[in-house]
């Protein structure tokens, strides 16, 4: 395989993401060269109610968010799953929600405008999954590996009677929680630590690095609602839910805040199990994923981002009498 200047190659669509200084791979043929199809990368920002899904990661049954999004993409682009290569930034677990999940996919063709594909995707998707934004992505961008930090929120409804409108999105604690001691304990999570004690065994064959950096961990009180907000460089399997579970026990004043550094130091999941189990998934939401600004810059000559479009009513001309 050799390389030829992209300026000499006819692109697959009227608008190319390649600059004149970039290079595209070509295959050598008997009578010249044939350009290999240039792929175009697209970034999605997704929101979903995870109640009826077995998490993000692809599987046919029970349904997952990735599987559902891929089916909509296949219908709207007429491409196969292997060609789309959809990748999500975070593998949210069964029953976990998202407001700011990020994913990317590929097409062998360009779009002049993104509003049409955006509207088509939301028209094909069930109402509990929405594409909030679609934008062109540079070759360097990767939804998972380019991420600088992720922000999760866990909601706890702390009252004797559960608000029925919060039942799918907040954990109900009938025990009166001391938010001040929960906040005191949350500060122990901030910094760079080995979180082995807060990770469940994963079905993923890849062994993750247990050392993660937590940039902030706050407990905010909003009436009957407590919200645990955690931002970190990355998280182990069920790490946030295990952190919240321990904070709940501390909030009940069953154990002191100083138990957090003790459990962290053991790096033993069995030590945490002496005090708490995982918090239920429905209180957890992936709020946003942060990237370097350089990774979010669009390629040259790319279409504008689509944030959806409002419908308007055309005013009718009233006949003059």
Overview of this structure, please?
- The protein has 321 residues and is α+β, with helices and mostly antiparallel strands.
- 19% of the residues lie in helices and 29% in strands.
- It contains seven helices and 13 strands.
- The chain has helices at residues 65-77, 81-84, 115-124, 179-186, 239-251, 259-266, 269-273; strands at residues 2-5, 23-29, 32-35, 40-48, 87-88, 97-107, 129-137, 147-158, 171-173, 191-194, 211-222, 225-232, 284-291.
- The strands form two sheets. Strands 4, 5, 6, 7, 8, 9, 10, 11, 12 and 13 form a ten-stranded mixed β-sheet that branches. A three-stranded antiparallel β-sheet has the order 1-2-3, with no helix packed on it.
- Strand 2 and strand 3 form a beta hairpin.
- Helix 1 (65-77) crosses helix 3 (115-124) and helix 4 (179-186) crosses helix 5 (239-251).
- The longest helix is centred in the first third of the chain and has 13 residues, at 65-77.
- The radius of gyration is 24 Å and the shape is globular.
């Amino acid at each position: 395989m050799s390389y030829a200047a992209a300026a000499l190659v006819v692109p697959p669509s009227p608008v190319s993401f390649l600059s004149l200084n970039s290079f595209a791979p070509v295959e050598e043929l008997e009578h010249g060269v044939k350009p290999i199809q240039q792929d175009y990368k697209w970034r999605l920002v997704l929101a979903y109610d995870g109640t009826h899904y077995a998490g993000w990661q692809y599987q046919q049954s029970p349904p997952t968010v990735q599987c559902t999004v891929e089916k909509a993409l296949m219908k709207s682009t007429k491409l196969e799953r292997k060609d789309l290569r959809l990748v999500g930034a975070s593998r949210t677990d069964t029953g976990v929600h998202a407001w700011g999940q990020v994913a990317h996919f590929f097409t062998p063709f360009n779009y002049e405008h993104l509003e049409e594909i955006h509207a088509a995707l939301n028209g094909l998707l069930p109402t509990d999954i929405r594409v909030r934004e679609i934008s062109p992505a540079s070759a360097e961008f990767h939804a998972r590996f380019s991420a600088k930090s992720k922000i999760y929120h866990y909601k706890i409804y702390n009252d004797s009677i559960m608000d029925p409108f919060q039942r799918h999105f907040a954990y109900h604690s009938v025990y009166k929680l001391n938010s001040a001691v929960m906040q005191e304990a949350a500060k122990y999570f901030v910094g760079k630590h080995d979180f082995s004690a807060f990770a469940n065994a994963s079905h993923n064959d890849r062994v993750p690095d247990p050392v993660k950096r937590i940039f902030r961990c706050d407990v905010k009180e909003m009436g009957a609602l407590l919200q645990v907000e955690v931002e970190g460089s990355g998280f182990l399997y069920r790490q946030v839910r295990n952190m919240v579970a321990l904070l709940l026990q501390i909030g009940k004043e069953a154990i002191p805040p100083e138990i957090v550094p003790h459990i962290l130091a053991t790096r033993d999941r069995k030590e945490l199990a002496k005090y708490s189990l995982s918090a239920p998934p429905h209180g957890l939401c992936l709020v946003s994923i942060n990237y370097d600004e350089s990774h979010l810059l669009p390629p040259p000559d790319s279409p504008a981002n689509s944030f959806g479009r409002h419908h308007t009513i055309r005013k009718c001309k009233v006949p003059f009498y």
